[in-house]
Amino acid sequence: MAGGRADALVPFDEALTRYEPVIGLETHVELGTVTKMFCGCPARFGGEPNSLVCPVCLGLPGSLPVTNRAAIEYTIRIGLALNCTIADWCRFARKNYFYPDMPKNFQISQYDEPLCTNGWLDISVEDPDADGGTRQVRVGIERVHLEEDTAKSLHVGGATGRIHGADYSLVDYNRAGIPLVEVVTKPIEGTGALAPTVAHTYVSELRDLMRALEVSDVRMEEGSLRADVNTSIAPRGSGVLGTRSETKNDNSLRSAERAVRYEIERQAAVLDAGMPVALETRHFHEDSGVTTAGRSKEEAQDYRYFPEPDLVPVAPSREWVEQIRAALPELPSARRARLEAEWGLSDRDFAAIHNAGAVDLVARTVEAGASPADARKWWLNELVRRANESGTELADLPITAADVARVTALVASGELNDKLARQVIEGVLAGEGTPDEVVAARGLAIVSDEGALTAAVDEAIAAHPDVAQKVRDGKVAAAQALVGAVMKATRGQADAARARELILARLGQA
Amino acid sequence: MPIARDDVAHLARLSRLALADGELDHLAAQLDVIISAVARVQEVAAEGIPPTSHAVPLVNVFRDDVEWPCLGAEKALDQAPAVEQQRFRVPRILDED
Amino acid sequence: MADELTRMSAAGLAAAIAGGEVSALEVTDAHLARIGEVDESVHAFLHVAADGARRAARAVDERRAAGEPLGPLAGVPLALKDLFTTTDMPTTCGSAILNGWRPPYDATITQRLREAGVVILGKTNMDEFAMGSSTENSAFGPSHNPWDLARVPGGSSGGSSAAVAAFEAPLAIGTDTGGSIRQPAAVCGVVGVKPTYGGSSRYGVVAFASSLDTPGPLARTVLDAALLHETMSGHDPCDSTSVDAPVPPVVAAARQADVSGLTIGVVPELGGEGYQPGVLARFGEAVGLLESLGAKVIEVSCPHFSYALPAYYLIAPSECSSNLARFDGMRYGLRAGDDGTRSAEEVMALTREQGFGAEVKRRIMLGTYALSSGYYDAYYGKAQQVRTLIIRDFEAAFEQVDVLVSPSTPTTAFPIGERVDDPLAMYVADLCTIPSDLAGNAALSVPCGLAAEDGLPVGLQIMAPVLADDRVYRVGAAVEAALERRRGHPLLDDAKGLG
Question: Which of A64, A171, A312 is the closest to C202 by Cβ?
Fold first, then answer.
């Protein structure tokens, strides 16, 4: 906030009663090519500062760019997956502005001739009011274009390590020149109170798409996917388009959602006060959840775009585009539809898996032999809870799909019951080994020894004569209390079904 | 349309040139003459004429996605005016726009 | 002997070295001695790499001694424009902003010269970042024309043309963006060639205007220029605009030196008012000579050529305003005003203010203007349309003729200082050369005598279609041979500037 006043806000639900939000997203994704956009330096994260650079990505005088074919191919792949038209001729352009993280003080980008235009992405947005708990939203894609990433700066001095108030900066050009795809949506209208969720779901869907297309590994925490969100609001029914703010650097799925929510609340207060919303760039702060205005600009940026003379036009042949289309993998939405059908789950159950980010995990568990219902049950109940407790992503839990499948197999075969299975999972998560190793080490196998079980049954009957009598009198349901006693005595390691059989047999009800 | 001193000052800011006042006046006068001269291109009947950005038409010049040797940090930083922590040290950067 | 060596052609020197008549080291030493003798007056060089040159010469001698095959220019000394990156020499581009810069990489052409055993004597003076027609825009002082030291050697490759004309090197490399090879070659009485755009690599050539910049040879004979053309040219995968085609057979064409059966077009738009009478007279004679040698000469109008100069002075500054943005004092070169309190933005602006000369600033400002929002269509966009029309003029002309001819420059070398603060007068020096830069086609300037009124050399420009570079050599060599037969000695024997 840098000493600024807190913004006035209107509570979200109230804001929505009077205003209709429109959002738009510009998402940058670093491509996972082996080398950079215009030179052969590795496009690798990490590495000693300024070690992954050459005359081209350092922008040294005399150096020239040469386009990485794979980056073009990846972008076409993305464009096709987003149902875009692929340009049959387009050029790179120079975007001119001075900034120390740009080695040439211009960025090679695309301006009025993007490689892909006019597509869409269907997303399933969580909506408590909708049938099945989700609503389908088609997000229009304006354009997909290719550009080069900038360097990374370290800000030294000042209080915060942030750019603001720093004494000087240290620049590492390793990231400079990594291919960056920008996906720009059309304005997303009519989603009302769902607008923040739409932002979240869109970015999440885009991330899944990039992974499925194998064009990027999308590590948001490393900044390889960065979303800027435009938010505007207008009085309901007015039919006008409000002035938008652009929120930069929303580096997690949640922050995109929170930024939209905050902007709706803030802009509603501005409009309520009879003020105009400023057309400006704002920054979202992960820690406080608020957005703040960027430095006010003395004069409007003038990027002086012109066709990049060091590069020749890109004219993908129809054959090449069709080849890329034919090689597209199954896309996440199609895959989800297929899995939902294959697994025989309801929309709501499947949506729960999707929303928990567990589709891949469940699918791999099913591939490893578990039934879909079992795989769903263990991931969504036990493991989601564990992930929440430890504050990690589900996928980052130290347990594999194969482990979970093995646990369900042990339960199905009667070697474990649910309670024991939970202990096995606990052991796997604690790093004690595979499920079988945990069972062995912790001695968690179910007591299926008839002798031991019979003794426990007899003890339970002797200890609860009144209950035993009820069962003898035909009240079979009362046997459950005896089963409970047996389980308690065996510390849960007995096969409950077999114990019940034995109890009923002893009491003449078999 | 003559070019005003303010326009020249704006161009200098866009071009990152800290022109001295006298230099600004001198340049404003010269730019005015030059711009009037080059504005002759507007006399040409160019309706429907495509622009040329590359005189020798080539398309699809690509590089395979294969690594080449990097310079290495030592050579990369060798000519830098200031270096710290194996990085280019630059004066404080005003907040990004 | 040493004097004799510096007067020899590159082809002659290469043959003598290959035949063991003279060592590459002797040849290099002779040229280094000549540089020591005259360069204080000529100031063709910004940097002389005596040790490196002698090392390279010795390496050629060793290869010859070992019986290894030598290339056609092995052991021949060359002067390299200071716009090409060199790992073993500074690269300044004639600018204070790059004073002392040591690039960590060699330009493709630098590398090819080294591989061919060409001995690089040093780096030549030039107008700052190749912007100018006189070398007066060099931050390190102007070069002088060996015909008359009070006059400019042309530019921007004026150090290269002066070095060749002053016998400091038999060969030089320059770059041509609006005429920066042909114009200095013409006013110094040497041969200069702008190859087809993309025919010679720009990788490692510090950019002025990327869509125009073309490296090319300067030499005292057309054959020498062809030998260098062949050595330095060819496809370069590091330059996306490099043409992936065989180098046209320029050496064979220079040896052919015959114009019989060719149709040659005279462009009326490149002549007449504003041209020095002595230039027009020599040009007229050259045309007559071509006819007498068996060529058919016709007049071919190129109506849009009169718009080439204004289009050029929009396109080139636009590209330069962007290309030169990288000189900001952050990563290399000069940094000014960094007192610990100023922001990067301020230090960049002070560095550029201090590091760039007047002409560079003028062009950056002009280009920024032409590209800025609201003006793009009227200036840059329009200039690009004019470029199309000029290409069409050439295409139509080359349907009728094999080559076009014109004077290389409207006047002979002008006095140092005459046009320094009159940009438009300076810009006119490139009137005849600019159309070929805009269209990307090949063009050559060959000396065609001395203007009667001042006794200074006049150049004949020969222009051929894209990738038909061999034609300009064929015609150029024919003119050169016929004029020398008539004159009885090489034109440069008449240069008296160095006494």
Answer: A64
B44 interaction partners in chain C (CB closer than 8 Å): 304, 307, 382, 385-386, 389
Q: How far is it, in rounded angstroms, from Cα A29 to Cα A32?
A: 9
What's the whole-number mean pLDDT along residues C226-233? Answer: 98
Q: For residue C2, what pLDDT is reported?
A: 67
CA–CA min distance A255, chain B (Å): 20
Residue of C23, C95, C134, C156 marked catalytic:
C156
- Beta carbons of C353 and B17 less than 8 Å apart: yes
What confidence tens digit (pLDDT) does each residue in A128-178 have? 888 878 899 999 999 999 999 999 999 998 766 667 778 999 999 999 999
Is the CB of B18 inside 8 Å of chain A's CB atoms? Answer: no
Is residue C41 flagged as an active site residue? no
Task: Write out A209-266 in H/E/C secondary structure.
Answer: HHHHCCCCCCCHHHCCEEEEEEEEEEECCCCCCCCCEEEEEECCHHHHHHHHHHHHHH
Quick check: C220 and C170 in contact, CB under 8 A? yes
Q: Give the neighbours of chain B: at least 3 Cβ pairs within 8 Å.
A: A, C
Q: Cα–Cα distance between A370 and A372 in angstroms, integer?
A: 6
CA distance A89 to chain C (A): 16
Dump pLDDT digits (tens) for C352-410.
Answer: 999 999 999 999 999 999 999 899 999 999 999 999 999 999 999 999 999 999 999 99
ipTM given for this complex: 0.97
Least reliable range by pLDDT among B36-45, B87-96, C217-226: B87-96
pLDDT over 70 percentage in chain A = 96
Optimal mutation site among B7, B30, B56, B93, interface C, most CBs of chain C within 10 A: B56
To probe the interface with A, which of C108, C331, C338, C376 has the most A CB atoms within 10 Å?
Answer: C331
User: What is the signed CA dihedral for A439, A443, A445, A449, rounded to 10 degrees?
Assistant: 160
Which amino acid would we find at residue C381?
Answer: G
Catalytic residue status for C156: yes
Mean pLDDT of A102-123: 97
Q: Examine the pLDDT at B97 and tell me if it is beyond 50.
A: no
pLDDT beyond 90 at A440: no
pLDDT at A165: 79
Mean pLDDT, to the nearest integer, of C478-487? 96
In this prediction, residues A96-117 reach a mean pLDDT of 97
Chain C nearest-CA residue for B74: C104
Task: Find out whether C442 and C197 touch, Cβ atoms under 8 Å.
Answer: no
Nearest to A105 among C84, C105, C325 (CB): C325
